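DM between two lab members

TW: hey, do you still have the Solute carrier family 41 member entry open?
JB: yeah, one sec
JB: this one, 542 aa:
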Amino acid sequence: MVLWSKEQDKPSDMSSGAIEAKKDGAPPAYHHANGTVHPIILTDSPEELRPEAGDYELTEVTSFSDRTEPENERSEMVVIDCRANAKGQREEDALLENASQSNESDDTSTDQSPVPSAPLKETSFSIGLQVVFPFLLAGFGTVAAGMVLDIVQHWTVFTKVTEVFILVPALLGLKGNLEMTLASRLSTAANIGLMDTPKDMWKMIMGNLALIQVQATVVGFLASVAAVIFGWIPEGHFKIGHAVLLCASSVATAFIASLLLGLIMIGVIIGSRKVGINPDNVATPIAASLGDLITLALLAGISTGLYEQLEHNDYANPLVCAFFVALTPIWVLIARRIPSTREVLYSGWEPVIIAMAISSIGGLILDKTVSNPNFAGMAVFTPVINGVGGNLVAVQASRISTYLHMNGMPMVEPNPTPQKCPTPCTTFFSSSVNSRSARVLFLLVAPGHLVFLYTINSMQGGHTTLTYVFIAFYLAAALLQVLILLYLADWMVHWMWGRGMDPDNFSIPYLTALGDLLGTGFLALCFHILWLIGDRDADVGD
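TW: and the structure you got?
JB:
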């Protein structure tokens, strides 16, 4: 056995065999037929480390480069297990390749730890300036979606097949499950330099587009299953025609909306980098601004068209389902070819599916509330309060994720190490850049909602008069929703990071789904309280 000691100028030979020294005086790499590396710390007693005969096989060495190290440093030894097999050979190749790459960039030091990038230097004013305009744009998009929902809630398909309301938060939540996650992944990749060359950029684009098409098809199908179950349990009867209609409408809407929004997101992120704007601040709000409107309009149009076909063509709805499901293997093959999306394709389903289930619970609340004529005015405000909360928390989660990526690689503790369970004070009142952005985003809630409420009132939308009592309850619900979401974002992103999960893929679906559930629940509670205290009007805007 051969030992390399940091306290010695040369290796100590315990048995026949040797090692091959790395260049520039770095510790040598032992290699044999297997390539499995076992680091061992030397102790004062060499007998403790003496191997059994035949356990190791080493090659002969002739010379070693001289090294001088402080005497108080620990001695280290690398031992190579000689179990020869094909898997070991592959591990050896990967080991030597990684060692070679790590040494090429450092000729003077043996410290191979990654040097973290400098954190983003942004003031509260610069954060607010970059966020406010996309935030308002996204808000007006949710207002338009609310106006559309306020109109289509009276359409035949929504009154005859009320389970379509359950699909609304789940499909609108796709912007958080898929598009915002896509925007966060690409924003992080752009910020850390993974999209600097055209080749790398196109690989990221193609892989991520194929990935979200697979996810959209699966999530759309599962959302229809959830809608059928949630609609069947309370009523106790099941209609196969309505179930197929929900499936076809959901899958088609999810597929088309995700393709359109994915292309828009890619353009926004590339454009942001070219003009020097942080994509984290603009990509996710713009995804939401168009996401709600496009998705809701597609859902209303597709479901209405397919509902009309129920009486004339029994095969239209099943053929629509079969067509979009048949395309799934093609997208899977494309996504598997790109390394950056292959892992997400296999491991990124849990947050998307759980988020869809959470949003469907919010859809059940919406279905049972809006179908009551006394609470018909809730429809126009639901996309607004859900959209604003989801937009703001997505921006914060994306920023924290980028910050952690720029201070350390995934599954490595970032530097500085974040607090495992932050308190509300550290989330909102510390001096860190993430706390500063949390304060800015929270301060945007009340002014933004006042602008959106005024816009709805000016367009004579909804079925509720904007009294001071209603505005007070509405703003209280919105502020509480965003306060909870921003704190959860701070905790969840760091919690996932500490467990080796990429927050770009896992955090935003959960957070936006919770935003849908909290927003819908708080808004329904507001309308019930207003009804109890006598603030009742359901005919405004008719």
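TW: got it. The radius of gyration is 29 Å. The chain has 18 helices and four strands.
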